[in-house]
Design a protein that fits this description.
Blueprint lengths: L5 E7 L8 H6 L2 E10 L2 E3 L6 H10 L4 E7 L6 H5 L2 H17 L4 E5 L16 H17 L7 E7 L2 H5 L3 H4 L5 E5 L29 H10 L7 E6 L1 E5 L18 E5 H7 L7 E5 L4 E5 L4 E3 L3 H14 L3 E5 L9 H10 L5
EC number: 3.2.1.14
Family: Belongs to the glycosyl hydrolase 18 family.
Protein name: chitinase
Length: about 350
């Protein structure tokens, strides 16, 4: 029996107006970003785009529309998960939204349990409460009989995330674990490097890579058939980089801040305006350097390597953040073509 690899795309609700018909046929799942949590209740504003959601279903009835809850800097999870009543309100309100708008599942993007970054509340009890919250969501979804509902999480691709969760238990209730294998290096590091690399360069002291994330999640008890790896349609940029080693693994004057989207990179940066594109064969990752600024990103070559990896490791598929960031409109058709070709046994 052939294994179908999935193409999953995150799209911010405000960007639904940009959704192209061709891409609708390329995608298996659209994760609508984001719903929020306030006083234990999940809320979401479709911003008047319900007609677009209907068009999506009409063009591709097999495509699943999933409501993604949370995102960077989105709080309310720790408080809701801390009590039985809070978990019930969270789960019931999330499922009610899903039913109201004819959606097919839920995706939980809690960044992060037990970690109070970006101003969100946290608790040492988040580890156990996260499991209980996911369990309650699974129960609510399983009670729906008129559709096959999916449940996934967006997970940090590092060992720290695993220490803050009971991933072996959580995974039992999930259809997919979306590994956020981007931002692996960036906002907290002044050393340049790849932020969405497949493998680790042997000269890099950081172990962070897509392959590392997959390996530690498998070791933590997540079936590889549930693992989805991430691709980035945006870049990370370091400034004030010494002109050595093409800028790679150098100490910069800044951390790796949010950089240009892929569409802008193609138009203004890749082998243009003083920037040269280089390829790290060990990491299977491209990067740009102009003698001063270093940019890490994904492109067609690195994404092809990720797709080959998915097939070789028999993973669930690939996801990307975020739809609107590919102004070239070339990455999604490429992903769909390559990942659906020669589906493996």
């Amino acid at each position: 029996m052939k294994q179908k690899n999935l193409v999953i795309g995150y799209i911010e609700t405000k960007n639904l107006i940009l959704l192209r018909d061709r891409d609708i046929h390329c995608l298996d799942v659209i994760n609508l970003a984001f719903a929020a949590v306030k006083d234990h209740v999940v809320t979401w504003d479709p911003m008047g785009h319900l007609d677009i959601l209907k068009r999506v279903k009409a063009l591709n009835p097999d495509l699943k529309l999933v409501l993604s809850i949370g995102g960077w800097g989105s709080g309310g999870f720790s408080e809701a998960a801390s009590t039985k009543e809070g978990r019930e309100v969270f789960a019931e309100s999330a499922v009610a939204l899903m039913k109201e708008y004819g959606l097919d599942g839920l995706d939980i993007d809690w960044e992060y349990p037990c970690v109070g970054i970006a101003g969100i509340d946290c608790s040492e009890n988040d580890k156990e409460n996260f499991t209980l919250l996911i369990k309650k969501l699974r129960e609510e979804l399983d009670a729906i009989t008129d559709r096959d509902c999916t449940l996934s999480i967006a997970a940090g691709g590092d060992s720290y995330y695993l220490r803050c969760t009971q991933m072996d238990q959580v995974a039992e209730y999930l259809d997919y674990v979306m590994l956020m294998t981007y931002d692996l290096r960036g906002g907290f590091s002044v050393q340049t490097g790849h932020h969405t690399n497949l493998y680790t360069n042997n000269a890099d002291l950081s172990a962070a890579s897509t392959d590392y994330a997959v390996s530690i999640f498998e070791q933590a008890g997540v079936a590889k058939e549930k693992l989805v790896i991430g691709a980035a349609f945006y870049s990370r940029v370091w400034k004030g980089v010494p002109d050595r080693n093409r800028g790679l693994m150098q100490m910069a004057e800044t951390t790796g801040g949010y950089g240009p989207d892929y569409g802008v990179l193609v138009t203004d940066y890749i082998d243009k305006n003083g920037y040269t594109r280089y390829w790290d064969e060990e990491a299977k990752a491209p990067y740009l350097f102009n003698g001063c600024n270093f940019i890490s990103y994904d492109d067609k070559e690195s994404i092809q390597c990720k797709i080959n990896y998915i097939k070789d490791r028999k993973l669930a598929g690939i996801m990307f953040w975020e739809y609107s960031q590919d102004g070239t409109h070339t990455l999604i058709p490429l992903i769909a073509e390559k990942i659906k070709a020669d589906d493996h046994e």
